[in-house]
Design goal:
Helix content: over 70%
Shape: elongated
Low-confidence stretches: none
Mean pLDDT: 86
Length: about 40
């Protein structure tokens, strides 16, 4: 995920929609897992 952020921030190339969607999906999964563990 950090690599995509660096590419978007420091490169003239854009991050693809597909890559953005995949990263958002992974982030949502991580948030869900954290919330699940902290609300026990």
């Amino acid at each position: 995920m950090q690599q995509a952020r660096n590419k978007a921030d420091y490169s003239e190339k854009n991050v693809s929609r597909k890559a953005s969607r995949e990263h958002l999906s992974h982030a949502a999964e991580m948030i869900y897992a954290i919330e699940k563990e902290t609300t026990r």
